[in-house]
Every structure is written in structure tokens, then in C-alpha cells.
Write a structure and sequence with these properties.
Length: 601
């Protein structure tokens, strides 16, 4: 998976790649669902049409595709979309259970079988449909699309985005003009309504941001979860979401006697209208999130105005016009926290407040019930926060992650135990002791200080593991032949050189590599800011045969780092197994033995 090397090898080296017309790529980021179709190839209208017509429970929206293309994230599909082959493509993934991702908890036992079933439905239904289609015509125009309960996937041309956004803004402008003509708006009232909007958005977002920071201080072990999303994050989302609802409804209730319903509604309506046009320009795939809730809210406001003119009580059925906003936004806010972790809680409450502000007139239909809504929301927030705090610890199902690695300098014979954790725990203390000191190792381990303790009995590594087989001067520098033997499972090899070094003509196991460029989808070499020259993942049984030409201006040596799975024992004997409530930490070089070699050129 590292470097997308499997996909890159197939696309760029295998003869079958040129025969592919459509790619269905299935990803997983955890062990919970549902499965979303979150990315497509450009010109996706026919693919979306096939998805809507053939998959009964498709979950998708064009917002994710718009956002994903601006993120630095990649999947195997990125290689296909970057290749010279013109393919149609759909990308699927489940993103729930992120705290389990790349940990020992990410296993078949914890996998929700409904994920497998839903992925199978996508794969089988689309293969049946697209297998008989003219896949050479899969790239046409782009579509805007989203799934809705009981309806399925709704889709229409992306070229409609601007027209629909302008139309919805004009409806709001017409409505404001109607209110002005009937004297439903005053300058002072609009000011009070704007105050309601600003406070409704700002107060929950600021308090949520500060509250989440306080919770992180209260639970320092949350810092050890590198996914930045605790196991109980849903309860925190519910707590802050209920608090947000209480603030918004209470703000509207308090200002009801000092501002008319149109005066409270006008600022959110105009803001949404302007946001809709901005979305159509910069993120057309997200424009549906603004257009349809705004149109429904404008219809509700116009209905309210008509009944108010004849002094008639608006019917309760008007509240149904809140459904588009709630159906489109509430699942999205939940998905936002799931996808981007609890670090986005403040953004989630901001969005929720924005949605509830648009629904000020449907909320007014509840009348005196709003006091009860506020009370229930506050109780729900307190209950959810209590639930979050009572499930904040770790156990056998919600394990505490930690890390431990062993580093040997093969030239000096010095060795260290080190951790990427903020503090030692009962397991890492077996190797690190209770008082490790911060140390910067550089190269493979970066410039961030790591807690480390010198190892008393360094490993003995044979010098033949890294061999300099050739070193001849040429017109363009030293021509070097380096041999690195395989040392163990899951081995990673990294080469480092001084920043002033120039490298040319590199080949590894017979494959010529490109010089470093901005193309992150091709295997390449370059001397980066940290001196990194090359990373090689998964050393084969035969080892690595490396040729390159190098010109060195500051030193006459390069550093070779190897890392293999597994840890040596301590002076007290083998390390004991982790306790039932602990596990290895993902995304860092944990439970690995690393060896550093200095090769003089």
C-alpha cells in the first residue's frame, strides 16, 4: 500500500492495463459502514446514471468528489486517474471505525458483514450493467448527484448548478422585496435578526472548540490515538450538536418579541443565497446542499407571509419544508466528523447552526414548545457528555495504542529504545524505563524529539547486510553499485544524503527510476529537505541491487536505514506481551528494529 506501488506497477508495467475501460476501486478505512461511492473520474454523468439505475441502496453525493480532489489523499484509483489511459472510474469506501484503522483491531472479527454485502452489491450490479456498455463512451459531462432516503440517487447535469443557484438567490431577493413592500422588515429588526444569526453560529462553534480542547487536556491519553478520533467520538458529536440546537432555538425564541419572523429569517436566507452562487463557481458538485434547502425554506417563508397578511395561523404542515435541509445536512454533518475526526467538531456545530438558522420559520411553528425543545436539547447534551466521559477509558475492545522501536547504529555500535508516544506506559517502560529523555534522531525518524533510552546490549549485525560492490569515478560523478540483503519481514529501506548531493541515473533491481519531480504517482528518487534520497518498501527475498551516479559536495558518505518487523529482547529477557487493553500504534515505525549504516563513497 505504501506509495500505491501495486497499482502503479500494474498501470505502468502490465500489458493488461491498456485494455481496461472502467475501474471500480474498493477501499476501507476502518471496520464500520455504510459504503459510499465518494469519487469518480471526470465526465461522470453516464457512470452516475448507471449507479442510480442499478444499485438499490447506493450512498453517494457529488460533494465528496469535489472535496476529495482538493485533498492530498490518494487511493489506488489515483494512479488510474493520473495515467495516460482514459478510463471511467468509481471509488467506494467505508470510513466508519477509523480508530481501528491499521491497528490490530482492524480484523475480520470486528468487520461489520453488512459492509461486505454492500460492497458486493455495488460490484456485482455495476459489473453487470457496465459489462455490456460501451465503456469507451463513459467520459461525457459531469453530474451533480446525491442519495436521498426512499428515493435513491438524484442526479442532474453539473451545468445546471449556476442557473439553479442564481434562481434560488433571486427567489430570496423577490421574497425580501415582498417583505419590504408589506412592511414586514425594519432596519432595526434586520439588525436584530443578523445578531441572532451571528450569535447562533459563533457561540456553539467557539464553545465547542474550547470544550474539545479542554476534554483533550482532561484525557491526555487521547493524544496517543493518532487518528485523532477517540472511540466514543459519536457521543461528543451528539453532546455538542444538542447544545448547538439549544443555543439556536433559544436565540430565536428570545428575539421573537423584538423581531418579526421575516426579520429573523432574512439574514440566513441572503447568506445561503450568496453561498449558493459561490458554491456554483468554486464547488459546483456541492451546490445542491444550498439550492434545495434554500428553495424549500423560501417556499415556507412565502407561505408564512401569505397567511400573515390575512391574520391566519400558518398550518403545521409547513414544517415539512424543513425536510430537505435536515435530510441533506444531518447525515453529512455526521459523515464529516466520521471522515475528518473529532478535530472537526467545531466545524460540525457551525454547519448545524447554519442549517437551523435557515429553518427559523418552521421552528417558529412550534410556538411555546420551543422552551421544551431547548430544555430537552440541554438534557440530551448533558446526557451525551456524561456518556462520553464514562466511556473515555480503554479496555479489551477499545485498546490504548502505544509504540516501541529499537534503533541500532551499526557503525558505532550504539543502540536505543525509543517511542513515538508522549509518555511511557506499563509496557513500554519494560524497555524505556520510567525516565526516558527526548532525543532527535533525524533521517528516518524525523526532527521531532522522541523519548529514548540507550540499550545496554546492542544487536550484532553482520556487515555483509549492506555491501558496496562498485564505486568508480565517471565524468558525471561516482558510479555506485550497492547491494542490500533482506533482513526480515515487512522490510523498509531508506537512503539519505546531504542536501547538496546530486544523484543521477538510478536503477533498482533493473528498473530505471525517474529523477525527483512534482509527480507523486511515479517511483522516483530525489534529495529532499530531510536528505531523503529513496524509500523502498517490501524488500524481496533476493534483496536490493541498486545502481546510481552521485556527486557529493559536503561529505563522502550516504546513510542506509533498514527497518524490519519485530523487536529484540531487553537485558532482562524477552519483552512481555502487551496487556489486553493495549495495542501497537498505527502510522509510525512501531514494533520494528531499525539499523543505520554509513556507507562511504
Amino acid at each position: 500500500e505504501d506509495g500505491l506501488l501495486g497499482a502503479e506497477a500494474f498501470v505502468n508495467l502490465h500489458s493488461w492495463a491498456k485494455d481496461v475501460g472502467v475501474v471500480l476501486n474498493f477501499e476501507g478505512r476502518g471496520d464500520a459502514g455504510p459504503v459510499y461511492m465518494f469519487q469518480t473520474s471526470p465526465g461522470n454523468a453516464r457512470l452516475i446514471q448507471a449507479l442510480a439505475a442499478n444499485v438499490a441502496d447506493a450512498r453517494t453525493n457529488s460533494l465528496t468528489g469535489e472535496v476529495y480532489r482538493h485533498l492530498p489523499s490518494d487511493t489506488d484509483l489515483s494512479i488510474w486517474l493520473h495515467s495516460s489511459f482514459i478510463v471511467g472510474a468509481l471509488n467506494f469506501a467505508h470510513v466508519g471505525g477509523y480508530t481501528h484503522y491499521h491497528t490490530p483491531l482492524d480484523n475480520l472479527a470486528s468487520l461489520d458483514p453488512r459492509i461486505v454485502q454492500q460492497m458486493g452489491d455495488y460490484a456485482l450490479d455495476l459489473t453487470r450493467a457496465l459489462g455490456h456498455a460501451d465503456v469507451s463512451q463513459m467520459r461525457t459531462a459531469d453530474a451533480i448527484y446525491f442519495s436521498a432516503p426512499f428515493v435513491g440517487v438524484i442526479h442532474y447535469p453539473a451545468s445546471w448548478a449556476m442557473a439553479l443557484s442564481i434562481a434560488s438567490l433571486l427567489i430570496v431577493v423577490w421574497l425580501v422585496g415582498l417583505w419590504l413592500r408589506h412592511r414586514s422588515l425594519t432596519l432595526a429588526g434586520i439588525g436584530r435578526g443578523t445578531t441572532v444569526l451571528v450569535c447562533s453560529i459563533a457561540i456553539p462553534a467557539v464553545i465547542t472548540f474550547a470544550g474539545w480542547r479542554f476534554i483533550q487536556v482532561l484525557h491526555p491519553d487521547y493524544r496517543e490515538i493518532l487518528q485523532r478520533d477517540p472511540y466514543n467520538s459519536l457521543w461528543y458529536l451528539l453532546a455538542w450538536g444538542a447544545f448547538t440546537a439549544a443555543v439556536v432555538v433559544e436565540m430565536q425564541r428570545r428575539f421573537t418579541g423584538r423581531a418579526t419572523a421575516p426579520e429573523i429569517a432574512v439574514a440566513p436566507a441572503l447568506l445561503w443565497g450568496l453561498l449558493g452562487v459561490a458554491m456554483a463557481v468554486f464547488l459546483p458538485g456541492a451546490s445542491y446542499l444550498i439550492t434545495w434547502p434554500l428553495v424549500a425554506a423560501a417556499i415556507c417563508a412565502g407561505w408564512w407571509q401569505r397567511d400573515a397578511r390575512v391574520e391566519r395561523t400558518p398550518p403545521a404542515i409547513m414544517a415539512l419544508l424543513a425536510i430537505p435541509a435536515l435530510v441533506l445536512w444531518l447525515p453529512l454533518i455526521r459523515a464529516l466528523e466520521v471522515a475528518l475526526t473529532a478535530e472537526m467538531l467545531a466545524a460540525c456545530t457551525l454547519l448545524l447552526a447554519l442549517v437551523l438558522s435557515l429553518l427559523s420559520i418552521p421552528l417558529q411553528l412550534t410556538g411555546r414548545m420551543r422552551s421544551w425543545i431547548v430544555a430537552v436539547a440541554i438534557l440530551a447534551a448533558i446526557g451525551a457528555l456524561i456518556r462520553a466521559e464514562t466511556t473515555a477509558g480503554f479496555n479489551a475492545e477499545r485498546k490504548r495504542p502505544d509504540s516501541l522501536a529499537y534503533l541500532l547504529d551499526a557503525d558505532s555500535g550504539h543502540a536505543w529504545w525509543l517511542t513515538f508516544d508522549h509518555a511511557v506506559d506499563q509496557w513500554t517502560a519494560h524497555a524505556l524505563g520510567n525516565a526516558p529523555t527526548p532525543r532527535v534522531f533525524g533521517a528516518f525518524l524525523g526532527r521531532t524529539p522522541l523519548l529514548a533510552t540507550p540499550a545496554r546490549q546492542p544487536l550484532i549485525i553482520p556487515r555483509s547486510s549492506v555491501q558496496l560492490l562498485g564505486n568508480e569515478p565517471t565524468d558525471s560523478g561516482q558510479r555506485v553499485h550497492l547491494r542490500i540483503m533482506r533482513s526480515g519481514d515487512g522490510e523498509v529501506v531508506a537512503l539519505y544524503a546531504d542536501s547538496g548531493t546530486i544523484v543521477r541515473d538510478m536503477a533498482i533491481n533493473g528498473r530505471v527510476l525517474q529523477a525527483g519531480s512534482d509527480d507523486r504517482y511515479l517511483p522516483q528518487y530525489h534529495v529532499g529537505p530531510d536528505g531523503a534520497l529513496l524509500h523502498y518498501y517490501g524488500v524481496p527475498e533476493e534483496g536490493i541491487d541498486l545502481w546510481f551516479t552521485i556527486t557529493m559536495t559536503r561529505s563522502n558518505a550516504i546513510r542506509v536505514m533498514t527497518a524490519v518487523e519485530g523487536l529484540p529482547g531487553t537485558t532482562a529477557g524477552p519483552l512481555p506481551p502487551r496487556a489486553a487493553g493495549m495495542m501497537s500504534k498505527p502510522f509510525v515505525a512501531t514494533d520494528m528494529t531499525m539499523i543505520s549504516w554509513l556507507v562511504k563513497i
